[in-house]
């Protein structure tokens, strides 16, 4: 038997923080690829510390639903899972290339495949592009558009910016959008000044965050000038300094994220059959996704 554990941050303050985790877990369950699919959190129940001990499967694939490698993926999750053999060097990563490490949870006799975070997997590039398609309701969006990939940015974790820049460069190499740039909340170039960095009249802004919360639903919309008060919502697109800003909200709410979770597990040796094809079919309705997003945030045309 094989199990998938999706390890996410969760929140005591934002009741919606865990919604994407549960949604993606449900999507993967529908594929039947795993005998068990479980959610686990740092700030909510069920907790990291307990999840492996509740599984019947003897082979477990743990995929962190985090954007970058760092404190949580390299220290907190392995410690709480009690993976005593863990060492960050087992990933042999430069900050964006973590793959997987196979370890034994000796107290329960299970083989644990601890995978790199979803945010640095190559498949995340497709999710960012899909997010732009969802926001514009245009599967061919690109020509005449700029794309901004937005991250938090922080001096405490240089890998945070690396993940943003990595996917930005991959999208730029596709020559699909007229302009592609990485912007940040807490370092230069800042998302507050988004219109200064683009010549394109239409700019899609995709925040590389797992869940919608304080930053994506309050800080960024107000900082970009989409609205003076986030509680009143904003238009999509919104007119700002002669540009149309198509703000998407957190990339982690995109249905195609379930595909990245599957990709991580498959890279670690999980047998998933045709689950990826099923997930891509389930996630392939931009109109439905944007309707759900605008209903949740109170924004719309």
From TrEMBL:
Tagged with keyword Mitochondrion: no
Gene Ontology BP, a term: cobalamin biosynthetic process
One term of GO molecular function: lyase activity
Keywords: Cobalamin biosynthesis, Cobalt, Lyase, Metal-binding
Superkingdom of the organism of origin: Archaea
Record-linked Pfam families: CbiX
Alphabetized Gene3D superfamilies for the sequence: 3.40.50.1400
Record flagged with keyword Membrane: no
Protein name in the entry: Sirohydrochlorin cobaltochelatase
């Amino acid at each position: 038997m094989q199990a998938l554990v999706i390890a996410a941050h969760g929140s005591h303050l934002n009741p919606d923080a865990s919604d994407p985790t549960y949604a993606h877990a449900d999507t993967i369950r529908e594929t039947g690829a795993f005998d068990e699919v479980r959610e686990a959190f740092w700030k909510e129940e069920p907790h990291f510390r307990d999840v492996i001990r509740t599984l019947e499967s003897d082979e477990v694939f743990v995929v962190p639903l985090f954007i970058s490698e760092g404190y949580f993926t390299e220290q907190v999750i392995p410690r709480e899972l009690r993976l005593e053999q863990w060492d960050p060097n087992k990933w042999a990563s430069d900050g964006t290339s973590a793959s997987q490490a196979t370890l034994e949870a000796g107290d329960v006799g299970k083989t644990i495949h601890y995978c790199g975070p979803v945010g640095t997997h190559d498949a995340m590039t497709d999710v960012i592009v899909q997010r732009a398609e969802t926001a514009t309701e245009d599967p061919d969006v690109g020509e005449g558009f700029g794309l901004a990939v937005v991250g938090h940015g922080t001096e405490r974790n240089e890998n945070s910016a690396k993940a943003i820049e990595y996917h930005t460069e991959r999208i730029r190499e596709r020559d699909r959008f007229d302009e592609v740039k990485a912007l940040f909340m807490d370092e230069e170039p800042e998302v507050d000044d988004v219109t200064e960095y683009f010549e394109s009249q239409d700019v899609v802004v995709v925040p590389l965050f797992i869940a919608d919360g304080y930053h994506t639903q309050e800080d960024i919309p107000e900082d970009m000038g989409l609205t003076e008060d986030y509680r009143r919502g904003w238009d999509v697109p919104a007119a700002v300094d002669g540009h149309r800003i198509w703000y998407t909200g957190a990339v982690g709410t995109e249905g195609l994220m379930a595909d990245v979770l599957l990709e991580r597990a498959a890279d670690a040796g999980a047998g998933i059959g045709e689950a990826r094809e099923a997930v891509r079919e389930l996630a392939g309705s931009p109109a439905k996704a944007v309707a759900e997003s605008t209903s949740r945030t109170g924004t719309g045309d």
